[in-house]
Amino acid sequence: MPLPILSGLAVLADRYDGFILDAWGVLHDGVSPYAYACETLERLQAAGKASVILSNAPRRSQALYDQMDGIGVPRRLYGGAMTSGEAVYRALAARQDPFYAALGERCWHLGPDRDRNVVEGLGFVMGPVEEADWVLNTGPDPLGATTADYERELQIGAARGLPMVCANPDLVIFRAGQRIECAGALARRYEDLGGVVSYRGKPDPAIYEACLESLGISDRRRVVCVGDAFHTDIAGGVAAGFDVVFITGGIHHQELGTKLGEVPSSDALTRLIAHHDNILPTYALPLFRW
Length: 290
Description:
Layout lengths: L17 E4 L15 H10 L3 E6 L5 H11 L9 E3 H11 L3 H4 L4 E5 L14 E2 L7 E4 L13 H9 L4 E3 L5 E4 L2 E4 L1 H10 L4 E3 L7 H9 L7 E5 L2 H10 L3 E5 L5 H4 L9 H10 L7 E3 L5
Parallel strand pairs: 1-2, 1-11, 2-3, 4-5, 4-6, 6-7, 7-10, 11-12, 12-13
Antiparallel strand pairs: 8-9
C-alpha cells in the first residue's frame, strides 16, 4: 500500500496521546524554527497531548533546552527532552554497562569544547589520542569540518585499540541549508579502520524507554514518533515498536527532489524507502504542522 501522506498532525490527534519529537530537521534547522513549528507545539498542548524531544545532540539535556530557547523554541512548548549526550553521561556515571565499566580515566575528546558537559564532573582526564585510554566522539569541530580532517587521529586510535563512545549517531545534518557531517560519520570511519564503537542515541531502542517515562504513557500504541532521518529516527522508532511519522522536508529532501513543505511523489518515496532497507514509516508529512 502507498505510504499515507498527512496534511498535518491534527488527523492523528484522536489516535495518539504522546508524541516523541526529533528536533533538528523537524522543529528547526539549527539556526531558527521552521514555519509552523512553535504553533504546532502549542496546538499539541492545547489538545492535551504529551510531548518529549528525543535528540541525537551530543550534549546534556539542559544544553538542548538552552539551544532551543536561543533559536526561538521556548521550553514551555514541550514536556521534556532526552539527548544522546545525556544518555552517554548516564552510562559513564553508572558504569553498569561492561563497555563503559572498562573505560580508563584518560580520554581523547574528538569534538568541540561545548560538548564536554557529557563527561563533566566524572573524573576523566582529557588528553591527546596518543596518551588516551578511550575516545569520546561528539562530532567534527568546527562546523564544516569533515571525517577526512581527522584521518590521522582516527588511524592512531584504531591502531592503539582505543574504544570509542559515539555521542551522536547522526551521519549528517543540514544547518541553514549547509550539509554538516556528524559524529556518526566519524564513528563509521573508525569502524572501517577496525575500531570498536559504542553508540548512544537513536536508532538504539533503549533510549526510547526514557521517553516513555517522561511521557507517563506505558502503551506504545498510543505514542507516535516524528522524525526526518531514516538511519536514526525512522529505524529507531520502528525498532522500538512505535508508529512513526516521516517528515519528508528534512534531511532527505534532496533525495526526494522536494523543498520543505512540498509533497513528494509516490515513486520518490518508494525509491527512498527501498534505499533504506525497506524500513517503513507509518505516515509521511511534508513538514511539522498541525
